[in-house]
# Entry
Amino acid sequence: MTRVVVDPLTRIEGHLRVSTEVDENGVITEAKSSGTLFRGLERILLNRDPRDAARYTQRVCGVCPTGHALASANALDDLFGVAEQIPKDALVTRNIIAGLNMAASHATHIYVLWMPDIVNPAYRDALVTVGDTGNAIWNELLGRFAPISYKLNGTAITPGTAYINAIKEKKRIEEAMALIAGKMPHQMSTVVGGVTYPPTVADIGKLSSYYLQVMDFINGSTLGVDTTTWLNNTFRASSPQNAVKFLQEHLQGLVDKSLTTNDFSHAAGWGDVEMLAAFGSELVGEKLLGLPVSFKLDKVGGYSKESNVGYLSFGAFYDVENGEGYDPLTFGEKSFIKSAYINSAGEKQSFDQSKITEETSHGFYDGEGNLHPLEGITDPVKTAAEIDYTGDSTSKYTWFKAPRYDGIPCETGPISRMMAIDEPLTTGLMNALSENGYSPVNVFTRMVARAQELLILTEQLLKWVTVDLDPNGKFYVHTDLSMAKDSEGVGLWEAPRGALGHWVKTGSDSKITNYQMIIPTTWNLSPRDASGVPGPMEQCLVGTKISAIDNLLKVDYANPTGIFHTGRSFDPCLACAVHTIDLTKKNKPQTYTIV
# Structure
């Protein structure tokens, strides 16, 4: 048995330690996920005016602050008792801001954080074994997805065109967000009662212009067909089987031509999604399309049949078809992205936030465990000697808590959301994989789900901007601090990385007495619970081959692509899950007021 530790895992937000045990065949047999900093924002918020929470909580992270702004605003709408009065156009504006942030986050993850994984030198070594075709594929991938400051055998590689252009599009999307949200990161618009800024007719025109420029990138790089054609045949397919049939026939036409010409360029119809769909999956690429090689990502980061895991979506984007207001606890039943809990057998159930608990048996915390967040405690251990990431799986080894839904660890994120809305392409690929003996959820399907959600969202954003938003509408309802006296609120949202919840309680002076956040990464990278059941990422690392393409060339402990691919497929955000605290008592407590 060999221990392989990646500390830190790079190309994610924050500092993650992944420790694994690997057998003599190069298969991971045990895994531990460790967040290596403490998040103290819950403690920072105590005794503060709750109206500040939507500002403070955004400071968790600069990548996904908008999800926290929305979850916090929902919790405050509930706390102040105004959720059912929020004007329709305020909800539309919130949808646009959140949708733009999700699109920017997905583009960043796909192109900047994850796709550089497929230009790992191990894939070059594997592709050259299939001759000219392999070399052509490798050169195309390298030309698109090579990251900055990348070297191979000491030679500097020019950053990939898709990589660089995606960064430009991320900037463009965030400029669009700042237009109506004040700035990005840490937007200023979303507050209890609505939004602070009513978009103008001129703003709508500028947003539409930004949209057209982003769509030029999607139609010219992300896809080899226009977006409408893609969505008509996948998202709007009459069945999951027909969505997969379209994908297979579309890819087969590309493969038949390119295997003859060795041309895998954009000009030959190979969008970035087509490259991922064809070469990412053994089932799709080799067994269905007849490619000589694939990256076998459908055999990486999947769950065994014995896995104890569910899939969770809180729901996102308000229903704006039926006028003002929403119910903070059930809005996901009618939202664009639905709320749902899906068990390991694929059975969908209604979501009930009262079934959420967190416990700390393997986290660096004191106090009671298995508490609902409204009763949650964030009480870190008191001495440095108690913080040890190298202990065995019976010890404390992380700053993550262990959230559970009805006692079950849950994966959350794009794939759970696509399952919740029965998205045909994602669920069709999952069904096909399951029928052929693969885990339906794996690195490949996580990435397909994220790309598919991005494409679906671009279409919905256009509707919110050009159809639903009325610049002459109402954008705010009045609130005052007295309305929050002796109250509590629940704020649920889907951040780009998954299910995000904020829970708040106030006292007789209307100030915060408890504030708890459960973050997508806390769900996905959770440690074991008191029963010894690992979190989702820990479970899906077990059984994964440590090296590239199912250990095709050799077991290479120095290049553990199985850990890289699996960890990054969750798009971890460690800043959301962890932060810092001063236990030296040398720094005097201070109150900071954000104006």
User: Anything to note?
Assistant: The longest helix spans residues 88-114. The radius of gyration is 23 Å.
